[in-house]
Amino acid sequence: MMHRDLIALREKAIPSLLEARSRHVDYRHYSIDTSSNYFGEELIDITTLGVRGRNYYNRTDNPPYYESIPGSLSGLYLRATVARKLAGVDRRLHDLGLRVFVHDAFRPIEVQRYFHDTWMPARVRRRYPHFDEAQVVKETEIYWAKPSESELSPSPHGSGGALDVTLAFAESGDLLHMGSIFDDACVLASTDYFEPHGDALQRDSDDEARANRRVLYWVMTDAGFANYPNEWWHFSWGDQMWAKMAGERAAHYGLAPMPGG
Question: Where are the domains of the chain?
Fold first, then answer.
């Protein structure tokens, strides 16, 4: 029987994300507090805290890519505070029969550059052959932030404060149905995609996707994470996107060093 707290989460609608989408604009220009105690915080392997995951870009069973991306890491690393917050979410979910499963965390600039400069623009040109180059860049950057080696303007994953996460059943480890594959770069990936339909959804699979996205959204935001509204899987804490969307005075994290570096 489903835990009553899980039922409540499944039935709790994701709120309007219009303001979140407007706040997201120009987040890379947001201030970073370099004097913060968090600023130089180390990256740690999240699996050392018992959090499950597998680096999506390092594997080959990773649709739509089906290749190990050059420069990808075999491990999953987050800033220590972010990792501990995520472990807290995992413990909460475990009591409800679920766990988190992480697809990506800290991301090397080589991976970011490959997707921003090569893979995604090629995909956009195939899908929208009428787009000019400015439109290609705009569409690309909905899903892939511009790579940067700047200490004060990293991509979210380059800060070590962002992660891509989904839900799994605690006992079997099977991933829950979320309504799209991970990295499905289209409107279907929007966190609230299933919400505007209210109770008018006609398919059980859509009902299930809506419920599961709600659970993920609420357990993560209850722990202080901010969601990127165009991607149901993307959450962060401490980076510039989080700070701007949460109305914080400044971000905690700049560009993170490579793990073990």
Answer: 4-246
At position 87, the amino acid (one-letter code) is: A
What residues pair up with 52 in beta bridges, in sequence order? 101
The CATH architecture to which 4-246 belongs is 2-Layer Sandwich (3.30)
For residues 145 and 90, give the distance between their C-alpha atoms in angstroms, rounded to a whole number: 27
pLDDT digits (tens, 9 = 90+) for 213-250: 999 999 999 999 999 999 999 999 999 999 999 999 99
CB 206 within 8 A of CB 166: no
Q: Whole-model pTM above 0.85?
A: yes
Q: Six-digit token pair at 49?
A: 């805290």
Q: Enumerate residues 6+ apart whose C-beta is below 8 A from 4.
A: none
Q: How many CB atoms lie within 10 A of CB 64?
A: 11
Which amino acid type is present at position 25?
V
pLDDT tens across 176-211, in order? 999 999 999 899 999 999 997 656 677 889 999 999
